[in-house]
Write a structure and sequence with these properties.
By secondary structure, this protein is mainly alpha-helical. The chain has 2 domains: 103 residues, Orthogonal Bundle (Rna Polymerase Sigma Factor, Chain: A); 73 residues, Orthogonal Bundle (Arc Repressor Mutant, subunit A). The chain contains 10 helices and no strands. The longest helix has 21 residues.
């Protein structure tokens, strides 16, 4: 059972970045897992980063509802809404409500990391061409703390070039994993 991360809420609401970091350490996996139904059609890493930023911004006004992990549940809702917004902008069909079973998400515990899958991802990352690898590495290293514009500037790229390289990195990484018989659809659920 997951600990009630709302214990950090008063400190977060007061602007304590360390408390927010502790909250993220406990909540990130659960929020990330809640975005899996969208992962094949939305950049869920970007959505996760935006979700955490928005949680930080609204936390001072958030009132816990008396149930555990109200801030985590708010983050899940924010993330889903951002995914739906992205799908609408791209004019894609939304994910069916059956795929978003609230009970399943509230009781879901993240899977343990698969060390073989991690090795394969690292292998595929090493095979990327220089620029896509550099862009993907920069985004991963920032952990969502910096906007893409800042990362692009640091790498001496225009934002469009940065985003094209990121898209290319994702595509090549997915192709490499599929060549090694990784079922991305199953892994992202």
């Amino acid at each position: 059972m997951m600990l009630d991360l709302d214990v950090h809420l008063p400190a977060i609401a007061a602007g304590d970045a360390d408390a927010f970091g502790r909250w993220i350490a406990g909540a990130e996996g659960r929020v990330r897992d809640s975005l899996r139904p969208y992962a094949t059609r939305v950049d869920t890493e970007a959505v996760l980063q935006e979700t955490l930023l928005r949680v930080w911004q609204v936390a001072p006004r958030h009132a816990a509802d008396g149930r555990p992990n109200s801030l985590v549940r708010l983050a899940i809702r924010i993330g889903r809404n951002l995914c739906i917004d992205d799908l609408r902008r791209a004019r894609l069909a939304p994910v069916e409500d059956d795929d978003l079973d609230e009970t399943r998400l509230e009781t879901f515990e993240p899977r343990a990391p698969d060390p073989l899958l991690r090795k394969l991802i690292a292998h595929c990352h090493e095979k990327l061409p220089d620029k896509p690898a550099e862009v993907l590495g920069a985004r991963l290293a920032s952990g969502g703390a910096e906007p893409d514009e800042t990362l692009a500037e640091r790498l001496g790229m225009r934002i469009n070039t940065f985003l094209q390289n990121f898209t290319r990195a994702r595509k090549l990484l997915a192709e490499c994993l599929e060549k090694h018989h990784v079922n991305l659809e199953a892994e992202l659920r």
